[in-house]
Design brief:
mainly beta, Immunoglobulin-like, eleven-stranded parallel β-sheet, 3 helices, 58 strands
Length: 628
């Protein structure tokens, strides 16, 4: 008898300590589960700036006041017809559930509820703090039903504790649901034949749904609940970066230039033009001063990446590109903006705990940011998994913090003073300019190219009618010889000789080559080294002026300059037909008839330019270097 009494007593204690758990099943919301805001019959409205993740829709009514949302807007379409039917079925199921506990009209005040079906006979309200305790059971379902309206006091808060999850919490009101300012709510709220509204500064992790009534929010942060069998977002399949993975900054067709103290982790290069202004001491990677075999491959691979990103079908269209940012939160998807985007304040990229999740943001137009703009990576998002596909120019303004891989299609890229880029910046055609900023490949591949030679200096001087070239290397790898190439215009090159090299060496070496070349025009020289893989790598270009002429007929001073310089010509100035100036990829950037002495090209980007002075019988060519 004592044993039986003890067992009975223990059983009673267990039931007292652990009230009924998971005595009800969650309703099947069907397609209504995809909506964070929905009404079968009623307007959907927003006031102020709200952050919304999830679809927004109504089957009958207007939708107004929203900026960009992280979801799809549906209005009176096939999707809303289905959602209306699914919502009515879910409400019917909940309305007919037998109660497991009756409750007075006021919830909260530090109270704790356990899983079950709690009913309030008439209208109900939440004040202070209400705890929903799953007692360690993540499948615990909470259903709270009111026989009338449901209201909350200002700053009322629903807490989920001990494993409770918002996707298993359901509030059902036979009337309107009205939440006061700063309310923190968890769960799916369903009003039967009443309006639903949330006051300024409210937070809802769940859904606001009505079978017949308006749904309104005011500066609200509204997120769909996670869990309960909802698929984990992965985003699209990432592109194959191939050799582009090695580069932090790259242009397939345009100069890549820097001014100020810039630090880069990753390779820096262009495949058409010159790469200038980068200090090897602050670049953890390879600087390709001129195009070579590596940059040619990168240009091919970049086109493939760009083509792939543009071909991706988008999941969500962001309808207000001019209002991009503004604390918007995006989750792993392919997004699209069909006009130029203006990025202000902060953008949050939320991987929802999936560190492999991919984000693609397609912009059919340019992208510009305000100063101090920021891309914030949260909940496992990695910069290497973020892709910005921009069909236009990109300008990242001063002191901005930007994350991801910028793939610019046919536009210039400008990274201004104080910019911190966690990722890469590429353009398929256009100049890429940096100013006293940092770019870091923090994750993904950093494949520093081992060039055949590490060049420390390269100079050319005129000695009577000979041009003497001197260069020094710090190290060499499988470098059998170096070829010397000459050009009269800096564009078309011819091989003029070669010098045997050290092969493999980790110590400095000095080399010299004499070119018996007499000309009244400037001659341009570069070195060509071929690596063991057959890919060619060029040095930077040096210019030697008018070797063989007793007096230099054409001179530019100062050179280098900021863009303001003087052109001197010792001959008959009336014989000058025109002056033309070309950039490093052969594009004409300036022309003038006759002879002109003073020039102001300070509007041009820094880099190397070619000036041609056209006479009736000949052409003089000079190199101009602009530094900012």
């Amino acid at each position: 008898m004592k044993t039986k009494f003890l067992i009975t007593s223990i059983t009673a204690v267990i039931f007292i300590a652990f009230p009924a758990v998971n005595v009800a099943q969650a309703p099947n919301l069907g397609s209504a589960a995809d909506y964070v805001l929905f009404s079968s019959v009623g307007a959907i409205g927003n006031t102020g700036i709200s952050q919304v993740t999830g679809n927004v829709g109504t089957n009958v009514g207007a939708i107004s006041g929203f900026g960009n949302i992280n979801g799809v807007v549906h209005n009176a379409d096939a999707a809303t017809i289905q959602a209306k039917a699914d919502l009515l079925a879910a409400w019917s199921y909940l309305a007919n559930l037998a109660p497991t506990s009756a409750h007075g009209p006021v919830l909260g005040g530090g109270e704790t509820l356990f899983a079950g079906v709690d009913t309030l006979a008439a209208a109900g309200s939440i004040v202070g703090v209400l705890n929903l305790d799953a007692q360690g059971n993540p499948n615990a379902v909470f259903i709270i039903k009111t026989g009338g309206a449901l209201t909350t006091a200002a700053s009322a808060t629903v807490n989920l504790i001990n494993g409770a999850v918002a996707c298993n919490v359901f509030w059902v009101a036979e009337g309107a649901i009205s939440m006061a300012t700063m309310t923190v709510m968890k769960g799916t709220l369903i009003s039967h034949n009443g309006a639903v509204d949330m006051g300024a500064g409210g937070i809802i992790e769940g859904r606001l749904l009505s079978t017949a009534g308006a749904v309104s929010i005011y500066g609200t942060h509204a997120d769909m609940p996670l869990g309960c069998g909802r698929p984990i977002l992965t985003g699209p399949v990432a592109p194959n970066l191939a050799s582009t993975e090695c580069y932090a900054l790259f242009s397939s067709n345009g100069i890549v230039s820097n001014s100020g103290s810039t630090a880069i982790k990753g390779d820096v290069a262009t495949n058409q033009g010159y790469t200038t202004g980068y200090n090897p001491a602050t670049v953890m990677g390879t600087i390709h001063p001129v195009p070579d075999g590596y940059t040619a491959q990168c240009a091919i691979d970049l086109k493939n990446v760009d083509d792939y990103l543009q071909s991706l079908p988008f999941d969500i269209e962001l309808l207000y590109p001019a209002q991009f940012g503004n604390n918007l939160t995006l989750t792993p998807h392919t997004y699209r903006m069909n006009a130029a985007a203006v990025f202000t304040d902060t953008l949050y990229l939320d991987a929802q705990g999936n560190t492999d999740a991919i984000f693609v943001i397609q912009i059919v137009g340019a992208l510009s940011t305000g100063t101090f703009s920021k891309v914030a990576l949260i909940n496992g998002t990695q910069a290497k998994n973020v892709y910005w596909d921009v069909q236009g120019a990109v300008i990242i303004s001063d002191n901005s913090v930007f994350s991801g891989n910028i793939i610019c299609h046919s536009g210039a890229v400008t990274l201004n003073t104080g910019v911190s880029l966690d990722g890469r910046a590429f353009t398929t055609s256009g100049a890429l300019t940096t100013t006293a900023m940092t770019a870091t490949i923090s994750s993904g591949g950093l494949c520093i190219v081992t060039l055949p030679i590490k060049l420390t200096s390269f100079t050319g001087v005129c000695n009577k009618k000979n041009i003497i070239l001197n260069w020094n290397t710090a190290s060499e790898k499988n470098n059998g010889h170096v070829a010397i190439e000459r050009s009269s215009d800096g564009i078309t090159w011819q091989a003029i000789g070669k010098v045997d090299a050290a092969g493999n060496s980790a110590v400095p070496h000095a080399y010299s080559f004499v070119d018996n070349f007499s000309s009244q025009n400037t001659a341009y020289y570069r070195l060509l080294a071929t690596g063991p893989d057959g890919l060619k790598t060029y040095s930077f270009v040096v210019a030697v002026a008018a070797c063989g002429s007793p007096v230099e007929n054409v001179a530019i001073y100062p050179n280098p300059s900021s863009g303001k310089f003087v052109l001197s010509y010792m001959g008959d100035k009336t014989s000058v037909v025109s002056t033309e100036i070309f950039n490093a990829i052969g594009e004409k950037v300036y022309s003038a008839s006759g002879f002109q002495t003073d020039y102001d090209l300070s509007n041009l980007s820094q880099g190397v330019y070619i000036l041609q002075l056209h006479l009736r019988s000949k052409i003089y060519t000079k190199q101009i270097v602009i530094r900012k």
